[in-house]
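Lecture 7, part 2: worked example. A protein chain together with fe (ii) ion.
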Amino acid sequence: MLDLINVSYDTQIPNNVGLSSDRRVLKALEKWHPGYINWWKGSGPDGFLEDLVYLRTAVSVDPKGWAKFDYVKMPEYRWGVLLAPQVEGRVIPCGEHFGEPAWQEVPGEYRSMLRRMVVIQGDTEPASVEQQRFLGVTAPSLYDLRNLFQVNVEEGRHLWAMVYILQKYFGKDGREEADDLLLRQSGSDEKPRMLGAFNEETPDWLSFFMFTYFTDRDGKMQLEALAQSGFDPLSRTCRFMLTEEAHHMFVGETGVGRTIQRTCEAMNEAGITDPFDKDKIRALGVIDLPTIQKKLNLHYTLSLDLFGAEVSTNAANAFNAGIKGRYQETKLDDDHQLQNATYAVSEFTDGKILTRDVPALTAINMRLRDDYSKDAVGGVKRWNAIIRKHNIEFDLALPHSGFHRQIGAFNGAPVTPEGDVISTDEWKARRDEWLPSKADGDFIQSLMKPVSEPGKYASWIAAPRVGIDNKPGDFEYVQLHMA
Ligand SMILES: [Fe+2]
Ligand SMILES: [Fe+2]
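Predicted complex, written out as structure tokens:
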């Protein structure tokens, strides 16, 4: 009998989907595999291919013990295909097919909509690996280096997850899309990745932590929405991906938190109380809090753009078709069809920020984005608690959702982080007050000196409170083959 909990390692590709008896898909995946390894070597982490990294690998989809930890060379990582177990009697949770049995095959009428959704999700996974390609050489510790690589291999696995869906359920065009996922490149002029934030640079480790906190959280929300899909294989694959995603956001939240902690400690030690005393604080080899706020502003707003236009017929169609649900759809107490419901959407009209009720069906993106913002606020509160603990008067905050937007109602609107509308000229003149300037970037870059002694950390970041897999503080998370 097929074991749907534990992962089978009897094929080249570990899986819990019975690949060894699904020759067609197994063959397609095996054919795709060498191209993937090529991509990993050419676009994945630069260097470190021969080093032993202490990584977790999924061995089960049982939430109680799904991973094992061991040293592995990254190109030999066992990227697998894992789906959360099928839920007996699952029904389509929303839209016009509400209550009908979930689809086990692609419904013909929604085929292209579904494929596009899988491709867009799939495209983000390798993109982030490409964006983070050069971070390894400046890692502030072996602990952080290992976390970077853990995130990278799992984003690689998420690509596998989407490629499996494409190859199993979408025939020839699915195979072509799978190949194209290895051809597009983050930041490329000719063949860029599909979404804006995934073509931005991740130039330093603070960016990496902000990215994993804010942009991986967008990933979480998209996966949550797709986990509600009436197309059951997609739902199952996204549910398992969410298990892994939690660690990525942990890396982001604790990474930013440790950066803040180190700054506050250094200020306390030097007797500096004014968080805006930039030169003195920077001279301590730490990142001043206002600059951390600017980084937050940048990554939060880039991530807001990923939710698309506030009012969207595409989003309405996907919901109506039962292809994509709302956040925690099955827990919501309404008709799940949004026949008469409205939803408040903010817009920018005649230089004013207004709120307008629109049919809730068309505001699916806005709603998911609002859920995202609520989710994102938690970490900010915990960061502020660190600052308060050190008796420093400074509060980090999420900027207004109209600030620095390039998609949707506020595209190009001259809104400040506080939500005030100013003139475009003034906005441009004050840009560097709110977003990282070239000089800020150069300063942060100057701190990015690698530290590779076990248990040691760069000047700008505190040690973590606990190790990965409960390892002691001086654990050698990466065994560098040449020091
Ligand atoms: Fe991912
Ligand atoms: Fe992620």
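The radius of gyration is 23 Å. Residues 19-479 form a domain with the Ribonucleotide Reductase, subunit A fold (CATH 1.10.620.20). Keep this in mind for problem set question 3.
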